[in-house]
Design a protein that fits this description.
It is a single chain. The termini are far apart. 82% of the residues lie in helices and 0% in strands. The longest helix is centred in the middle third of the chain and has 31 residues. The radius of gyration is 18 Å and the shape is flat. It is built from four helices and no strands. By secondary structure, it is mostly helical.
Length: 122
């Protein structure tokens, strides 16, 4: 199967992907209050991670779980946007999709508490 002629390839594709990613981050920041709150928390926690007497690997793990919250929130926001695009009326599956996305964010936040607590308290 051949590629369409107008499809970006190589370095141009990588550059375009970066542009789309930045657009997504800007949209999340502009339209999603939960993302803004979690981004603020992430900045605080990532900076705080450098003030604890932990190993480099522990610090990297602490930062990684914080970044995971942002990743999960972005995916949850994407699910919510698609569900809202379909229509404003309530549908059981739409509600379930949003609830499951919210549960994923909650579990990622719990993971931050467990990892940070485990590293700092034990």
């Amino acid at each position: 199967m051949t590629q369409p002629e107008n499809k970006n390839r190589g370095v141009l594709r990588f550059f375009q992907a970066g542009i789309y990613s930045m657009q997504g981050l800007k949209a999340a920041y502009r339209h999603e209050e939960a993302f803004r709150q979690e981004l603020f928390l992430a900045i605080v926690l990532i900076l705080a991670a450098f003030f604890f007497d932990v190993t480099v690997l522990e610090r990297l793990f602490m930062i990684a779980v914080v970044l995971l919250v942002l990743i999960v929130e972005l995916l949850n926001s994407a699910v919510e946007a698609v569900v809202d695009r379909i229509g404003p009326e309530h549908h059981e599956l739409s509600g379930r999709a949003k609830d499951i996305g919210s549960a994923a964010v909650f579990i990622s936040l719990c993971q931050v508490a467990v990892v940070w607590g485990g590293i700092l308290l034990w």
